[in-house]
Design goal:
38% strand, 3-stranded antiparallel sheet, rod-shaped, 0% helix, mainly beta
Length: 196
């Protein structure tokens, strides 16, 4: 194990095997020097001084997708959320929650740029959705920042709701006995007519 440059002494004609391991956030891209190439191990025979270089690249996260979600959807029916393609490997991570802070989200691994959702709500519920793009880097994975948040209100179809027509009415306050609508308090079950 060494930093940017390291050296070691070996007995003459010793066979030395070199292995490169990238730290988190970087990837090993290959060997150069003394006949070594590729990303496997590099073996050199110390019949003389040898100089081998290992090249590493810093991982770059993909761009964040732009998400599109319907404003409303019928309860119990499929609806689609979709986003722009930004993952070089076509892999995304979708999160869905019932609060805008994504306190306890459901996380779904998705291949492609859309996902079908289906919820049952009575009478209505609000769902928040966001997505991020994934890419491989060495032996690990890098992720973009989260996309914009989509908001979908899932509600019962209008046919399942009941509407009632109410006649207009006026409420009169008769607590001021000296006012134009005053007078003695009404007994239970009694009526009085006012001109309004």
């Amino acid at each position: 194990t060494c930093g940017g440059t390291c050296a070691a002494t070996f007995p003459l004609n010793t066979s030395v095997e070199l292995t490169a391991a990238a730290l988190a956030g970087s990837s090993f891209t290959g060997w150069s020097g003394e006949g070594c190439s590729g990303t496997g191990t590099c073996t050199v025979v110390m019949s003389q001084a040898r100089n081998v270089s290992a090249t590493f690249t810093v991982c770059v996260a993909p761009a964040a997708p732009v998400l599109t979600a319907p404003a409303t959807a019928p309860s119990g029916s499929d609806y689609q959320v979709s986003w722009t393609a930004t993952s070089p490997i076509g892999s995304y991570e979708l999160q869905e929650a019932t609060d805008a802070a994504f306190t306890s989200p459901v996380t779904i691994a998705v291949s492609g740029t859309s996902q079908t959702r289906n919820h049952t709500a009575s009478p209505a519920a609000k769902y928040y959705t966001r997505v991020r793009s994934l890419d491989t880097c060495g032996t690990g994975t890098v992720a973009s920042s989260w996309s914009n948040t989509g908001t979908t209100i899932v509600r019962e179809p209008l046919a399942a709701m009941a509407f009632y027509t109410l006649l207009p009415c006026r409420v009169i306050d008769t607590r001021e006995p000296s006012g134009p609508l005053g007078g003695p308090a009404l007994e239970t079950g009694a009526t009085r007519t006012f001109t309004v």
